[in-house]
Amino acid sequence: MTVTTVVNVETGRCEVIDKQGNINQVNEGEQHTSRDLVPKVSLALPEHLGHLKRTAGGATRFKNPVVWMTLPGAAGYLIEWAILPTQPFSTANARGVERPANTLRLLNGPGGTTVRLGETGASAVLGPELNEIISFSVSGGIAQMDVAIDAPSGVPLLWRVFPLDASGNTMPDTEASDARMFTIEEEGEGR
Questions:
Q1: How would you classify the pairing of strands 42-45 and 13-17?
Q2: Separation between Cα atoms, residue 89 and residue 96, nearest integer Å
Q3: Nearest to 16, CA basis, from 1, 43, 35, 38
């Protein structure tokens, strides 16, 4: 993926540091454009400012698709989330996780998809005992995880995805996807 960054300076001046560490001075009235080739995952659903349906305890699980474009060479993916406004992500284009407790790792293997919640959580093979994660698949360059969420209605969340290598670590020289925000809503609310 090529990322284009454009900086317009209206007053004063600033220094712009690109991915290679080059420092460029940009003065008042000037514009600086840089293009960097950055391997990262692209998110698809939910759309930014979209909604996911809440599954109340004991109710039939509502299947919410969470979809992203795969990254060649990735053996799995780490999903990180943050609760707004108390826990926003502080780093755009992150190369590492900010909230290890708010992560979910998905790795495909010979025994099926292995899921690990949090940084120290136990691994389990995806199946009916994992209530929140209904399914996970990768096909034709698209990854889809169907989730059931039992969080309070109205809660805004951010999410982003990191590509993983076969050892379950973030792939070297890659970044997290851009973060997207969605809101939890009761079934029948909103859209």
A1: unpaired
A2: 11
A3: 35
Q: Give the tens place of pLDDT for each residue, 3-16.
A: 567 788 888 888 88
b/e for 5-21, b at 16 or more Cβ within 10 A? Answer: eeeebeeeeeeeeeeee
User: Position of tokens 């925000």?
Assistant: 181
The answer to whether 113 and 126 are in contact (CB under 8 A) is: yes
Domains and CATH numbers, the chain: 2-37 (no CATH), 42-186 (2.60.40)
Dist. CA 187–CA 61, nearest whole Å: 11
CB 5 within 8 A of CB 140: no
Instruction: Using a cut of 0.90, tell me whether the model's pTM lies above it.
Output: no
